[in-house]
Design a protein that fits this description.
heterodimer; A: about 150 residues; mainly alpha; Cytochrome Bc1 Complex, Chain D, domain 2; two-stranded antiparallel ribbon; 6 helices; 2 strands; globular; B: about 160 residues
Amino acid sequence: MRPYSISSTRLLIIAALVSVWALPVSAPVSAAQMQEKIADYAAEARAQDNNFAGFSADRGSILFSSSPATGKPETPSCTTCHTANPTGIGQTRAGKEIAPMALSMTPDRYADAKKLEKWFRRNCTSVLGRVCSPLEKGDFLTFMATQ
Amino acid sequence: MSKNTGIYLTAAAMVLLVNSAVQADERYKPIGDPIVARECGACHMAFQPQMLPKKSWGIIMDGLPNHFGEDASLEPEMVRHIKKYHLDNAADSGLFSGKFMRGLSEGSAPLRITETPYWVREHNEEVPQRAWKDPKVKSKANCIACHRGADQGYYDDD
């Protein structure tokens, strides 16, 4: 037996454990969590409007690419930082890369409900100057799920 | 005679070495708090708290809903946690003031690291204007575009 064989076996075990631990949330789980959130928004939208007839990817697309410029002057549109292409890599005003918004490109992006709410709150306020309605949030997610 | 020359040369080399080591000491404690690293690093590199005085961090952390033109609001509990870390590690906390206090007048509170006299002095002569216009740099807040180890507190690579 070589003197270092034990430690290399240990290393292998540690490497195996770390790689299992580091596995990202699998795509089907993330998608299910996102669908759950969309269902929550649907319930809220229905509570606000009896005529609510489901979310629309087209409305979500228009919301994403519009330039309402009713929020902060530095961020007139979602596309200011995320670019007009949901599958493309965005860039913050401070120069940091932003992972694509499209669910197909960043499968775990919408899996964490708390994180989702945080960024809707921040970015709707920055771009629109107000929080988004459940209808807008649902439309947005429905659109990104098609991308 | 030649032996003495050797000693002088060695001494001179040592002085030069020590001098350059002192001048190149642009290292800051990496952010050790995972919440601070994650939240402050979401939109920009998480800047080391040693780069602004306490007063600056207090104003910045109390104004997150309008953070340099964007809403960066957080839960109050999170704000308290991150603010404490910044106050504890600010340029003017601890026994000795950090480099970023150099040239700052008493009580002044710059809100951008790039407005501190120390930062200006370190960048003005060395960095050409065209470097700032590079789309990969985009912003003076993007330290890591040029200082590759900036997020680990390492700025010696200029």
